[in-house]
TrEMBL record:
Designated name of the protein: ROK family protein
Family membership: Belongs to the ROK (NagC/XylR) family.
Coiled-coil ranges (or none): none
Organism this protein belongs to: Streptomyces venetus
Matches recorded under Pfam families: ROK (PF00480)
Source lineage: Bacteria, Bacillati, Actinomycetota, Actinomycetes, Kitasatosporales
């Protein structure tokens, strides 16, 4: 069974048909740049470009980098334009895609669902936290396999700032930090803070940096929870979006 998944990020919008039996992309993903400013209309146009690239005519699952309620309404917009707030994204994207059925889900929640079913969290019980490190920090929290939606732990306070301003992948690039310095100081401090609050059994590190985990995971010390990279890497959001669309 194939369903289309789209992952909206702060820098890019990427998507592909997903083989839900294998939990992997059925075709090589297509990506377009996220417009700036990332307004609802501009982003919707980008989603349409990605879907039209494949000539897709079935259900579409779409991730969004913020809180999504009822599978439709956007409540926060940290890394896209503020005009997204209170937008009915399901209606907007459905209209832009010519009436195709659309399901919208928080981006990290989608990645977490995919990792728990097909990836690093498969078969795990207890408390599992997936963190996507990219333009910001997304989070998905699971208690014995059940998702606690829209946690947005990237906005915890760290050193007087949103944690994602200190410990995201973009923060490492913006401040020209080495992988070792970023991991040993910024990321370790953030993980220690999250661990203090939730005492997880497992951290799954997702987002674009997951494919480079050998460059930073060895430098994270003093964390009691197991820390592993996401197995689906940066495709987890696309797979999770498709899973949610199939479920709906």
């Amino acid at each position: 069974m194939q369903i289309f998944g789209v992952d909206i990020g702060g820098s890019g919008i990427k998507g592909a048909p997903v083989d839900l039996d294998r939990g992997d992309l059925a075709q090589e993903r297509h990506k377009v740049l996220t417009p700036h400013p990332a307004t609802p209309g501009g982003v919707a146009d980008g989603v349409k470009q990605v879907v039209d690239h494949f000539g897709w005519t079935g259900p579409v699952g779409v991730t969004f980098p913020g809180v999504v309620t009822d599978g439709a309404t956007i409540r926060t917009a940290a890394n896209v334009d503020d005009s997204w707030i209170d937008t009915d994204a399901r209606a907007l994207l459905g209209e832009r895609l010519g009436g195709l059925p659309v399901t919208v889900v928080n981006d990290a929640d989608a990645a977490g669902v995919a990792e728990m079913h097909f990836g690093a969290g498969r078969g795990r019980t207890g408390t599992v936290i997936l963190l996507t490190l990219g333009t910001g920090i997304g989070s998905a929290v699971f208690a014995d396999g059940v998702l606690v939606p829209n946690t947005e732990l990237g906005h915890l306070e760290l050193d007087g700032h949103d944690a994602e301003k200190r410990a995201s992948s973009k923060a490492r690039e913006d401040h020209d930090m080495s992988w070792e310095h970023w991991a040993a100081h910024r990321l370790r401090k953030y993980l220690a803070h999250v661990e203090m609050l939730f005492s997880p059994d497992l951290f799954i590190i997702g987002g674009g940096v997951s494919r480079k985990s050998h460059k930073f995971l060895p430098y994270i010390e003093g964390i009691q929870a197991e820390i592993v990279p996401a197995q689906l890497q940066n495709n987890a959001g696309i797979v999770g979006a498709a899973m949610r669309a199939a479920g709906h």
